[in-house]
Amino acid sequence: xxxxxxxxxxxxxxxxxxxxxxxxxxxxxxxxxxxxLTNAQTHxxxxxxxxxxxxxxxxxxxxxx
Length: 65
Known about the structure:
Layout: E1 14-19, E2 29-36, E3 48-51, E4 56-62
Antiparallel strand pairs: 1-2, 1-4, 2-3, 3-4
């Protein structure tokens, strides 16, 4: 699923994000969404979220697990 649309992302789902310091390398961090930080309905680089462990980044993948 696409991480660029806010409608696809809900609190409590499992996602893969890219943190700011990993944008060049593209390393993804997996976790459960605690809070959605982007107010816009869409964002070209992905909706910004905070994971339950406090990490912040933009959603690149929505995992079905």
